[in-house]
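Fold it.
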Amino acid sequence: MNIKPIRTESDYKRALVDLENVFDAPKGTPENDLAEILITLIDKYESEHYPIEAPDPIEAIKIRMAEMDLHQKDLMSFIGTKSRGTISNILNRRRPLTLPVIRAIGPKLGLSFDVLVKEYKMG
């Protein structure tokens, strides 16, 4: 098999087919080495041609809540409020995230400060 850079959509599709043929190769074999090289080339092409944008802070919070099976009441305890309306307003983009809220929920949800301080559209 001739390994070359992936420059076109045709090259990309060919590389995916080639990867399918060697994907389950045992470690330490030339086929496994080829699979690792193809994965690297495919990843580079996909990151350049099919970038995935990070979600805005509110979407990131909602995604992490779903992943962790959390509810609004859980966020209430994280930020020390008894008002369900506060969390609802934040999640519905009627109230902005504040620095104290970011500091309280970021570590609990495993979301970095960089993700939570991005600008986002208010509703």
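DSSP finds seven helices and no strands in the chain.
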